């Protein structure tokens, strides 16, 4: 028999079986630790979760299920939660009854989309789903959230259906009865104890899967790369929510839900209007008022205290009402602003790294460049503005070049021939001086000769997947927020076949002039570049420049690297490092 027309399973019980006050009807779906049936109860239609026999037979797991059922049944009704009604043990059958469940599982909807050749729910659809799930878990913990935990009905109503099963699911994972899925936080797999930050991880992983259409995994694509209407801010939200260190995640699920709903609902980035600029800051001083209020609906847990300042700031940005933030530029303070005002000014380039932001109520100060939320925005804004300036300069140069006519093209042709000869003689002369350094090319740029050298590549040393290590760099560090938050989930532990370094060099060395142009345009003389090449496609999937994954130099070099076509292999990926200099 099919469940939702997608997954085959053999229901354990037939329609008409009575469990307590509930008479079973047709089966709905299989889930991780139970089969779900339609049912009729003393108050009308209901649903019954019949726990799988091997799981119900485990005393520890059974006790966790019973405890989860009692806690869920004691909750008030919530529009985004399926209310738990009763539970019982009939013979050897452990069961839980809930109110009627309508709609389809998010799990099954994702499978159907993939079968139809599409993937994910899109930006707005995912935003609606995550907003509903986060609202359901604002004051409770689940512990084992997954796509099968959520239903969406025809009107778009989102509900979490298996809150009572959360503790039991974690206990079953601990007992080795079921595998831990990609939405389970690493620390919960070890401890088996649900937590708020564990649910934050689960919501972040669910958001990723609903956007991309596949589970969160090492080496998976960034949402901004594959989902229209998203940008790098969404990547950073996923990365922070799913950080390996619980202290670096959002402190509360509802805060994450509000930020995601705002970001995805407006095309992948928070947008604001009617925002004053720094030029008008002195006028705002006359209007300053003590409007600060306690934003969070409930205090965060002690384990999440390190995230409270950021979470309050995020909610303030969404509320766009509390003008409590001062921006310091040099010796001058401007403001007060709402955080949304600050975000808008970052987007314009008026607030940059090195400027300080201060909560005038608490006195807490932070460099916007290292702020967990604002830092990535500062980097993205700088890269975007630099790209715009370079594009404008290129248009101007191209327009000027067209006016020079055929004579200029002839001169350029001679220059290319001379450049090729120069490459030959430079390579020949440097081959004996440095066996690891070769001249990649000589290219005319703005009327001057640009001498670019790139080194032969080397494969970075292999390392274990733990400890937050990243390709081409060391372990994660609080001082390098962009590296901590970068959605680099790659690992080289599963590599079987890799490209030879000579083949890697043959491709990127032919783009030496373009890479050198990136250095010159950003005022950089040299760079260490780390890359990950996807085996089946031969395309660069990850780039790191001088240990960074943001900034103007990285943005330009990343664009050049991703335009290259390397040979394809059967192995998953090839990692390499090389140096480039002017």
The helicity comes to: 25-40%
Largest sheet: 6 strands, antiparallel
Give the neighbour order of strands across the main sheet: 3-4-5-6-8-7
By secondary-structure content and strand pairing, the structural class works out as alpha+beta
Q: How many β-strand stretches?
A: 20
* Measured distance between first and last alpha carbons: 67 Å
Q: Whole-number radius of gyration?
A: 28 Å
What form results from the Cα inertia axes?
Answer: elongated
Low-confidence stretches: 1-6, 267-318, 430-449, 463-495
**Oligomer designation:** single chain
How much of the sequence lies in strands comes to 15-25%
Number of helices: 18
Mean model confidence by pLDDT = 76
What would the keywords be for this entry?
582 residues, alpha+beta, Phosphorylase Kinase, domain 1, six-stranded antiparallel β-sheet, five-stranded antiparallel β-sheet, 20 strands, 38% helix, elongated, disordered N terminus
């Amino acid at each position: 028999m099919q469940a939702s027309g997608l997954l085959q399973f053999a229901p354990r019980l037939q329609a008409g079986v009575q469990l307590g006050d509930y008479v079973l009807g047709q089966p709905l779906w299989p889930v991780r630790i139970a089969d779900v049936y339609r049912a009729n109860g003393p108050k009308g239609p209901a649903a019954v979760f019949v726990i799988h026999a091997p799981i119900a037979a485990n005393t520890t797991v059974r006790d966790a299920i019973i405890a989860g059922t009692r806690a869920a049944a004691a909750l008030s009704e919530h529009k985004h939660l399926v209310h738990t009604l009763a539970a019982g043990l009939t013979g050897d059958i452990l069961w839980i009854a809930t109110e009627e469940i309508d709609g389809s599982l998010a799990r099954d909807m994702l499978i159907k989309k993939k079968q139809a050749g599409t993937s994910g729910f899109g930006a707005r659809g995912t935003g609606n789903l995550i907003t509903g799930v986060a609202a359901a878990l604002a004051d409770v913990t689940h512990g084992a959230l997954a796509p099968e935990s959520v239903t969406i009905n025809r009107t778009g109503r989102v509900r979490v259906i298996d809150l009572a099963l959360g503790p039991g699911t974690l206990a079953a994972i601990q007992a080795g009865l079921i595998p831990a899925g990609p939405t389970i936080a690493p620390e919960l797999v070890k401890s088996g104890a649900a937590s708020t930050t564990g649910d934050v991880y689960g919501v972040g992983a669910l958001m990723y899967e609903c956007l991309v259409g596949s589970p969160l995994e090492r080496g998976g694509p960034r949402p901004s790369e594959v989902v229209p209407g998203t940008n790098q801010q969404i990547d950073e939200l996923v990365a922070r929510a799913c950080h390996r260190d619980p202290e670096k995640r959002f402190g509360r699920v509802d805060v994450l839900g509000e930020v995601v709903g705002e970001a995805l609902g407006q095309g992948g980035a928070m947008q604001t209007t009617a925002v004053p600029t720094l030029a008008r800051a002195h006028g705002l001083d006359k209007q300053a008022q003590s409007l600060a209020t306690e934003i969070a609906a409930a205090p965060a847990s002690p384990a999440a205290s390190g995230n409270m300042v950021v979470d309050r700031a995020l909610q303030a940005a969404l509320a766009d009402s509390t003008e409590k933030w001062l921006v310091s530029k040099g010796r001058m303070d401007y403001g007060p602003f709402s955080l949304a005002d600050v975000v808008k000014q970052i987007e314009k380039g008026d607030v940059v790294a090195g400027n300080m932001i201060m909560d005038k109520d608490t006195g807490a100060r932070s460099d916007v460049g290292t702020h967990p939320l604002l830092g990535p925005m500062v980097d993205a804004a700088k890269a975007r503005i630099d790209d715009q300036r370079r594009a404008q300069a290129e248009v101007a140069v191209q327009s000027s070049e067209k006016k020079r006519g055929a004579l200029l093209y002839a001169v350029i042709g001679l220059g290319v021939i001379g450049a090729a000869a120069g490459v030959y003689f430079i390579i020949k002369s440097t081959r004996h001086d440095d066996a690891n350094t070769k001249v990649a090319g000589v290219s005319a740029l703005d009327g001057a000769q640009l001498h670019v050298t790139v080194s032969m590549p080397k494969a970075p040393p292999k390392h274990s997947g733990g400890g937050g290590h990243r390709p081409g760099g060391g372990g994660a560090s609080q001082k390098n927020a962009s590296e901590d938050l970068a959605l680099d989930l790659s690992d080289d532990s599963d590599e079987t076949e890799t490209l030879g370094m000579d083949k890697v060099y043959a491709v990127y060395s032919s783009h030496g002039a373009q890479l050198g142009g990136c250095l010159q345009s950003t005022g950089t003389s040299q760079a260490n570049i780390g890359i990950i090449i996807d085996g089946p496609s031969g395309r660069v999937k990850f780039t790191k420049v001088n240990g960074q994954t943001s900034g103007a130099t990285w943005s330009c070099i990343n664009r050049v690297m991703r335009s290259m076509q390397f040979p394809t292999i059967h192995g998953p990926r090839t990692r390499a490092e090389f140096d480039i200099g002017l």
